[in-house]
Amino acid sequence: xxxxxxxxxxxxxxxxxxxxxxxxxxxxxxxxxxxxxxxxxxxxxxxxxxxxxxxxxxxxxxxxxxxxxxxxxxxxxxxxxxxxxxxxxxxxxxxxxxxxxxxxxxxxxxxxxxxxxxxxxxxxxxxxxxxxxxxxxxxxxxxxxxxxxxxxxxxxxxxxxxxxxxxxxxxxxxxxxxxxxxxxxxxxxxxxxxxxxxxxxxxxxxxxxxxxxxxxxxxxxxxxxxxxxxxxxxxxxxxxxxxxxxxxxxxxxxxxxxxxxxxxxxxxxxxxxxxxxxxxxxxxxxxxxxxxxxxxxxxxxxxxxxxxxxxxxxxxxxxxxxxxxxxxxxxxxxxxxxxxxxxxxxxxxxxxxxxxxxxxxxxxxxxxxxxxxxxxxxxxxxxxxxxxxxxxxxxxxxxxxxxxxxxxxxxxxxxxxxxxxxxxxxxxxxxxxxxxxxxxxxxxxxxxxxxxxxxxxxxxxxxxxxxxxxxxxxxxxxxxxxxxxxxxx
Length: 489
Prior knowledge:
alpha/beta, 8-stranded parallel sheet, 4-stranded antiparallel sheet, GH, carbohydrate metabolism
């Protein structure tokens, strides 16, 4: 049976305290998905963000963002008092990361001080996990060095000399425990929320970034897995060449992988990442899957125009992941314009993607001809909202959309509604629509504009925007298109 779902970042939920969280607002949203006939909730990566707030270059690829921790839950546990909570920010449509950075750590530290969790055997065992241990020490050291990146720390710490690490753990014992605490509570709350969402008959699709940020736990703890010199410096960075949307190309500033090292260790690091994903999610979107075929390498400090292609591991990585996790739904990121990625997905038993906006913009395969087993979407987090896309079209471009839909409708709102209905009625097994498209929001609600800084990763839904009438409309379209959730989960 065909299925449908919504792309909605956790950060965009209308929670009370400045950013979406694992709280009652998240449960309410899942209940609304159930009533509107949806079976899937796709989210963006959950990792702790650094400069630029992008979840695709987190501080740690296997850690959780402490901002998503529910303050409601901390209050219910008695770790925070009601008068200590900040003023609710229910009606703001933007995440204020500066405010969160200035206020949230204090509340989490206060909760930690009251938790009496240090001697809990479950917490002690959690702390000893390699990924948690590395993250907690890294964050404690980063705080100790006033936020400086690891490659500016003293040499003994940069190169992870055992004596220096032992000394740091002893000196920063309380800080290390605090950062482990944030991960412990994060995972407790997330798995509880996932259980409640699953009980409603809704599966969660997570998102796994492909690249690691240079200033990250991953590169600091596993330098041998990245293309660094003997000083642990980057000589080349990853990016992408210019195209129609970004003529100058992009330099992402992150290191390339040392693929022979990954293959030599039997893909252990990747398998560890996906093992966590299999616990946290019901399926995953593999970001930048084309990076397995080749990466765009740019000499350090140079413009993207100086870059060139270097080969990746081909299908070897995804074959290993499919063998390790045969039941995990893996969706490869693909806009439909890269047949080599489509072939990669087919070779490895993964699910491919198609993007409606890209089909029109680049005269690709139209939705009626999308493969049955693919995931079709109206747009992604890197693209404009459907309404914003239609608003900025030329007369000729809009005429092409109207001709395809067999309509004379001029109103953008109506055109957006027809696009969504048409996509839902395709034969694709899975159809996922960004929440902003169902809300008919314009470019102000765009999640990310690649290659820019500023208003990215900030959009939040207001309480009340996902109203009863919209639930009913979505449910009706889901029924009419054969994407109906059964009465009993």
